Amino acid sequence: MTHAGLNEVSHRLAAAAREAGRAPESVRLIVVSKTFGSEAILPVIEAGQRVFGENRVQEAKTKWPDLKARWPDLELHLIGPLQSNKTADAVALFDAIHTVDRPKIAEAIAQEMRRQGRSLQLFVQVNTGREPQKAGVEPELVDQFLSDCRDLHGLSIAGLMCIPPADEDPRPHFDLLAQIAKRHGLTLLSMGMSGDYPVAVACGATHVRVGSAIFGSRS
Fold it and tell me: How many CB atoms lie within 10 A of CB 79?
């Protein structure tokens, strides 16, 4: 079974990877299903997609337990901000969290993973544009935060994530994220969305988060 939006994005993603001299399978597509119900998600699963992203724990709880029961190989990534009172639910439901961005959340995730016996893939969100309204660690504070995650909370951080300012060229932000990751020997970069994922791939993205280019615009 095919899905037009998924097909188009998959082809563009593979082309961007090849153009960057990379293997297409070195970039994982996270299909962002926030605000879309199971009826929209099912055709994408049936077309073979297995990695999805949600912004809100509460919304994900209404959709994904049933879907994950039917397709045990589904992978669910939290790509929106996490409130500490939702950490238990997040650790139970998600396989990866892309938005570790403050000590309180790092500590809560560490405690819950130990309590539930689960090990999630974790990304630190970096506020590359230093936007006051946006979550994320400021670039100059990332080194300290990463060492705190490791030394104080016993967390293994797999990579970094960013959302560049909407009105700026994303490339300098992607390059900055890649530089910080390289400095710390981190191999995973979650960057690039519907409007700029080919640029992100050229800058080294290993995970791109694409929703509207697959599902159409949100109501």
Answer: 26
Cβ neighbors of 14 (< 8 A, separation 6 or more) are 24
Q: What is the tens place of the pLDDT at every residue in 6-39?
A: 999 999 999 999 999 999 999 999 999 999 999 9
Sign of torsion, CA 48 49 50 56? negative
Q: What angle do CA 161, 202, 94 make, to 5 degrees?
A: 30
Q: What is the mean pLDDT of residues 49-75?
A: 97
- H or E element that contains 31: strand 28-32
Whole-angstrom Cα distance, residue 56 to residue 71? 21
3-state secondary structure of 203: coil
What is the C-alpha to C-alpha distance for residues 7 and 134, in angstroms, rounded to an integer? 32
Distance between CA 100 and CA 180 in Å, rounded?
Answer: 16
Read off the pTM.
Answer: 0.96
193 burial class (0-12, 13-18, 19+ CB within 10 angstroms)? buried
d(CA 38, CA 188): 29
Q: How many CB atoms lie under 10 A from the CB of residue 107?
A: 18
Pairing of strands 207-210, 121-125: unpaired
Alpha-carbon distance of 133 to 114, in angstroms, equals 32
Nearest to 159 by CA among 123, 185, 184, 127: 123
Alpha-carbon torsion (73, 116, 88, 158), positive or negative: negative
